[in-house]
User: What shape does this take?
Amino acid sequence: MVQTTKSVEKGYQNEILVQEKMLTNLVHWQSFFSMMVGFSILIIYFFSRYSVWLLVAGIVLLVANIILIFLIGYGIRRGKQNLNKVIQHYKEERPQI
Assistant: This one.
């Protein structure tokens, strides 16, 4: 299959746009889980005196959300590195196309 220069260039541009959109989505998810950490702290603070189960649920939610924040942050970091590689490769290939 022979690829034209326009199709290769359009493919790079499309890939860059899709990865930027996915990075934006990850940032939104990280913000959501940060909000859930605050919600977990509120559960621990206000409802722990009523039930041990609420205390345990709040602590589990807190730990799970903190782990998710770090995992999503790592995904954002690696995604930005990958996006920079794609952009760099596109800039290197563009004069040849």
